[in-house]
Design brief:
Two copies of one chain form a homodimer.
Chain A (H helix, E strand, L loop, with lengths): L6 H7 L6 H11 L3 E3 L4 E2 L2 E2 L2 E9 L2 E6 L5 E7 L4 E2 L1 H5 L6 E4 L3 E7 H10 L1 H27 L2 H18 L8 E3 L3 H8 L3 H13 L4 E3 L2 E4 L2 H8 L17
Antiparallel strand pairs in A: 1-9, 2-8, 3-4, 4-7, 4-9, 5-6, 5-8, 10-12, 11-12
Chain B binds a DNA duplex through helix 8.
Chain lengths: ~240, ~240
DNA sequence: CGTACGTTTGAAACTGCTCAATGCCTGTGG
DNA sequence: CCACAGGCATTGAGCAGTTTCAAACGTACG
């Protein structure tokens, strides 16, 4: 983990130790990051064709809207994560993406990515792991919605996000902050905002979270994890134990 | 679609027109199918290492168990579907698999599959599509659990399964039968068996389904689809419109 | 200063759950 | 051949978790 390099490199390094050449080509491939406003839709099919994104800073989310206005958020995305990768490789009519906060994103175009994969199979593998982890998260969310109570869902989501944030080195002294409005959390957990708010209050009363509009803080992740018996294995929080460079 | 060839070939042909050479190598790769009893667990890591399965006949399902006994079924799998493919490519601690009915399965071993992909990129692509479609289904199930009522969930599941079954040519005169016990349907929909039973009754009363222990029949899929305003696009029910042979 | 968005709270209604009991069919052992 | 057990389906009654509706509040922003 070097200073001033794209966070995506750190994330990929969790799954494959990358050599200097690989890093250099990856950086060249990413090019220059672009800014995106908060609460904006992210287009995957732009004028210059298909592209995906890598988050350098800021939070985003993926969701699916129903015709009647109901919405289900599929996942949240933080720095180091990738957005729309699968859609890019296979042009499926998948779901939609949007920013939560202001974001700095690298746009990745399909042919460039293909070339990068062809030249550096280990990079391709690392990307596949990123994808696989995303899918494991979706399955875990499915379990939450199907079989966990509101309290369990909320705790689970916060633990998951917490582990991801801290693992990326974005925590703050044993805790972390989470720039999500309650509306979004509710849409991720399949709950009404009203009920989410009440559920959140219970955590507040235990001092496990503090709440401000559009921002939620977990001062002590370890304490939250202890209360929630959260199993983090599906997050595959690796540390470069894969193929050596 | 030729008689007596593995159903998987039909399924792959939805996404890529395969040449004779490709078909032959695929058939050789699949080898001989093996029988598995109903209600058995399917091991992905066996003595001879990792493998995945392709269903030739019978139904299976994938699920995730919680420590306290709660269970969430992630998807059902019918002939032509694949089981554990992702787990095979990347050794993630994913979810579990089991048979619903007696099954005939082809076991696919990792190195063989790799060789097949290397030799026939178009086959690799077709498999990727299969995978992508599976993930689209999981996301759709997520939407169901998060944002649909019990009635909607049930209708949606039956429509989805119906489309898949009929698309594979396994329907019976405008309808199809579905060898799932209500316990499993409930675990897929995140409902209690009791409530599922009552929900099912409503459909029975409308003559949309008939029910016997361990078996559910939809006599007229089109009518069910009409009642449910089901959007089938995520199923990617292709018909060989991709790369020509 | 007004508007918009997000949050908070109360009250009432409802959906879906749990518990408990019953019935049915199939396979098995006596 | 019958009795019994086990798995699945069904039904009723009461309860709990969540939703909906409605209203009020705070803060940021134009």
């Amino acid at each position: 983990m070097k200073a001033n390099q794209p966070v995506l490199l750190d994330a990929l390094s969790d799954y494959a130790a990358l050599g200097d050449r690989e890093r250099a080509d990856l950086v060249a491939f990413l090019g220059k990051a672009s800014r995106h406003e908060a609460r904006a839709d992210l287009l995957i099919e732009g004028e210059e064709g298909l592209h995906a994104y890598a988050i350098e800073s800021g939070w985003a989310y993926s969701y699916k809207d129903m015709e009647d206005g109901r919405r289900q958020i599929v996942n949240f995305h933080i720095p180091g994560n990738t957005i729309g990768l699968r859609t890019l490789v296979l042009r499926t009519s998948d779901f939609s993406f949007g920013t939560v906060t202001d974001c700095t994103l690298y746009a990745m175009r399909q042919p460039d990515l293909q070339r990068l994969f062809d030249e550096h199979p280990r990079i391709a593998t690392a990307f596949m792991w990123l994808l696989a982890r995303d899918e494991a998260m979706v399955v875990e969310h499915l379990v939450s919605l199907g079989r966990r109570s509101a309290d369990e869902r909320l705790a689970h989501l916060l633990c998951e996000i917490g582990c991801r944030v801290v693992n990326r080195g974005l925590g703050e002294g044993g805790g972390f902050s989470c720039p999500l409005p309650q509306t979004m959390i509710a849409d991720a957990l399949g709950l009404s905002v009203v009920h989410l708010n009440r559920t959140l209050r219970k955590l507040k009363e235990q001092g496990l979270v503090t709440v401000q509009p559009g921002m939620l803080e977990v001062p002590d992740l370890r304490r939250l994890l202890a209360v929630s018996d959260f199993e983090a294995d599906y997050l595959e929080l690796g540390d470069g134990r894969d193929v050596p460079a």
